[in-house]
User: Fold this.
Amino acid sequence: MFTSASNFTNNVDAVFLYIAGLSLIVLIGITVAMVYFVIRYSRKRNPVPTHVEENLTLEILWTGIPLLLFISMFYFGWVGYTDMRAIPADALQIKVTARMWQWGFEYPNGLKTDTLYVPAGKAVRVELHSNDVNHAFFVPAFRIKKDVYANRKNDLWFQSEKIGRYDIACAEYCGLQHSGMYSAVYIMEQKDFDKWYKNASMKTGLQPLLSAEAKK
Assistant:
């Protein structure tokens, strides 16, 4: 956790720990209260049942406190969601096609690959669509996942500063070979990405759309 593999990793991990921590506190509180009342008001200690009058203060507390806690969970989740939907205007546009059982990636100049290569420090927007059944584009290390449908476009974005290879999986059961529907995203230095992009494009007879750094 907190690997900073993408711009969303730390925030998602923090919200997860926050919700898990609150849930644990509530669980412990309810369990302790339950055990206390079982012992305190057992038949041995109270052979004659005790009549308990209503208590407005307690009713407000046990209603208001959980409500505030759940509202705080919703708030932090909403903040994270809005960040994930705020796609930068200058993001690198990649078209992602899902099919049983393979991922395909298309760059702005028409270059197509079965593995995703992107430069470090650059916002990347992936436009998602399916050629057949429902899939889900999932990069666990980046904490991003989005459903992929036929006849409907979906999108998400990410940015990573960490050079390396990260798995891309399908998180929606899509058939017999669903578990094998893997690919990878490689985060590369800008100069290395430009070199790869240029060579891969030229091999297929395409003109690479180079970055500003590569044009100098």
Summary: The helical segments are 9-40, 56-85, 190-203, 212-215. The chain has two domains: 9-85, 92-215. The two ends are 39 Å apart (CA to CA).
